[in-house]
Design a protein that fits this description.
Layout lengths: L31 E2 L6 E2 L37 E5 L8 H11 L3 H10 L4 E5 L2 H13 L4 E5 H4 L6 E9 L2 E6 L5 E5 L3 E21 L5 E19 L6 E4 L16 H15 L4 E3 L2 H8 L6 E13 L2 E11 L1 H13 L2
Parallel strand pairs: 6-11, 9-12
Antiparallel strand pairs: 1-2, 3-4, 3-5, 6-7, 7-8, 9-10, 9-14, 10-11, 13-14
Length: 339
Amino acid sequence: MEKKVEMIGSDEWLKDLPIQAENPAFKAEEMISCKKCERTNPPTRRKCFYCNEELEISESQSRFLRPNVRKLEVWEKGFNLIYQPMIKELEETKIEEIAKMLKLENANLQKMIKINRALPLARVESEKEAEIACQRLSELGLETSLLSDETLTAENQPHRLRGIEFFDGSIILIFFNKDEIVEISNEDLVLVVAGAVFERKVEATEIHNKKGDNKILQTTETASDELLIDIYSRNDTTGYRIFARGFDFSALEEEKEILAKDNLKKLVIKFRAVAPNAKFVDDYLQVREILGTVWEVEHKSDSKGVKREKIGKYTLGNMTIVNNLSQFTKYSRLQRHIL
């Protein structure tokens, strides 16, 4: 085969290669110097590559940053990006980019946009990460606000009530298992949030032996649900909680029903009558699935200990409890903070 000697050593083949117009490297003035180890880092990093120290980033340098959205554990304290209802529609390409950035399923993000209510989009580990994410989302046409877990304080449950009394212009709140009452005016009742708590318990017993032939002997599963109401006064962000179970509905007088769940609905109607200017939220059951993508339901597993059956064999019992009480509390507090 004849070789084309004239092409060897020729530069003609270079003319058809694409030319890179921009230098991919960052400029010297764009680099960030670490205050601790004094080494330089690219402006795409929030912490020093060498010593993991938090970098001091200027406003001009922050445009290079991208949010690092990782899934937080339930016990970790974080910052919540709250979706703000919009009038305009987002382009499909932008929705895809937002879902990718927040590590959300595209379908879940579209559901949230369709519902168009204040809901959590993501939960990130630091305020700085949250601010970066808010900025990037705003550039894509999606407005958000920040709400920290410390502000929601879901671990601090609302004060439980065992009764209520209605008077002309005021409401008496009677605490559960406490010799304490609080009086608020009708005008000071600003928010009522209705929902439900679900709980599922799975109890399992396994038999173990020295050979490792382990098997489940018995599994028992029980489930329960209960309606509840949270109410908030104008100067209170902790709230007061009414469970259908253990509450005295005598304040309903002749309107009182036999079933507690019916009385709870009657109580909401009563609140509407005495506080017509208050905000009423009753869509928790409709948004519960979407909430679960960010605010997961709580899982607890407890061992019931080891019991020896006979030589070489023993049983191990454990119980798993799943409930949504913390999730509902966060949603309830969110409604209070967006008033």
